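REQUEST
  id: r-88c1
  op: predict_structure
  target: Flavodoxin
  payload:
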Amino acid sequence: MKVFIGYVSLSGNTEKMAVIIKNRMKAAGCKVYMERLDTVEVDTLKDFDLAFIGLYTWNKVALPYEANEFYEEIEQVDFKGVKVAFFGAGDLTHTEPCAAINILSDKKKEYGFHVFEKILKIHQESSTYDQIKKCEDFAVYALIWGNKRKKWRFLSWNRVLSIPKCQKSAYL
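RESPONSE
  id: r-88c1
  status: 200
  body:
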């Protein structure tokens, strides 16, 4: 399975989340491509079976400037059927936590993307084992969701779920 991970990070927390997801996808046997969103052409997402998009939230409620061009290009391509999962770090105490993720998620739904219903949001100042585990679990469940295999083949996912933690863990 080909997986794309695109992210924008200011403090480094969203990038660390992307690395954790990348390591988990590689451990599951996926071909993983990871890039910053400000260097990616939006139409390349059509080449992947599953995409993970990670953002920080600028000024509590806006998209980061690095993601503006990516956001605007979404309208120019037909993305019907492309599967995407969202994650990010932000201030979870705010009334609209990680609002940039919600803004991008809503636009992707509008233009035909299949969006994973669970969005991973981690508090920006946290660095606990539980949050690393949340990133790994999110990656596995999004992979299961993004996989088009028949029900009887999901027995093989028991192997994916029992893969030991990656050697090079990133800490939030």
